[in-house]
């Protein structure tokens, strides 16, 4: 068996999968493409990491509104590909510039 690993935030693996260049892809990006099937592998949970003195560190539940004024450090990808945006901020109507 030969195993090659490719990683990176700019690699778009779905076309390579469709063209037979790859056998499988592990991704959190669900992009509807003809002939591809997405199977969940596990439950994914994002954790917010805070300094102990940060005001939000005392909260038992952080809401999207709590993060509206915060600076978020994210991967340099399109906003629509970020889970924090798609599943947390956008549904709550939080707009980031």
UniProtKB/TrEMBL annotation:
Q: Name one Pfam family in it.
A: LysR_substrate
Q: Mind listing the GO molecular function terms for this protein?
A: transcription cis-regulatory region binding
Where on the tree of life does the source sit, at the highest rank? Bacteria
Q: Which UniProt keywords apply?
A: DNA-binding, Transcription, Transcription regulation
Q: Which SUPFAM superfamilies match?
A: Periplasmic binding protein-like II (SSF53850)
Chain ranges passing through the membrane: none
Q: Which Gene3D superfamilies match?
A: Periplasmic binding protein-like II
Entry's Gene Ontology BP terms: regulation of DNA-templated transcription
Domain LysR substrate-binding span(s) in chain numbering: 2-95
UniProt family annotation: Belongs to the LysR transcriptional regulatory family.
Protein name according to UniProt: DNA-binding transcriptional regulator MetR
Taxonomic lineage from the root: Bacteria, Pseudomonadati, Pseudomonadota, Gammaproteobacteria, Enterobacterales
């Amino acid at each position: 068996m030969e195993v090659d690993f490719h990683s990176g935030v700019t690699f778009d693996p779905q076309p390579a999968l469709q063209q037979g260049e790859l056998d499988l892809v592990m991704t959190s990006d669900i992009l509807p493409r003809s002939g591809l099937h997405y199977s969940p592998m596990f439950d994914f949970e994002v954790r917010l990491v805070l300094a102990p003195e940060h005001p939000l560190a005392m909260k038992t539940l952080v809401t999207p509104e709590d993060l509206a004024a915060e600076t978020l450090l994210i991967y340099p990808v399109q906003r629509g590909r970020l889970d924090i945006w798609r599943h947390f901020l956008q549904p709550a109507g939080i707009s980031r510039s």
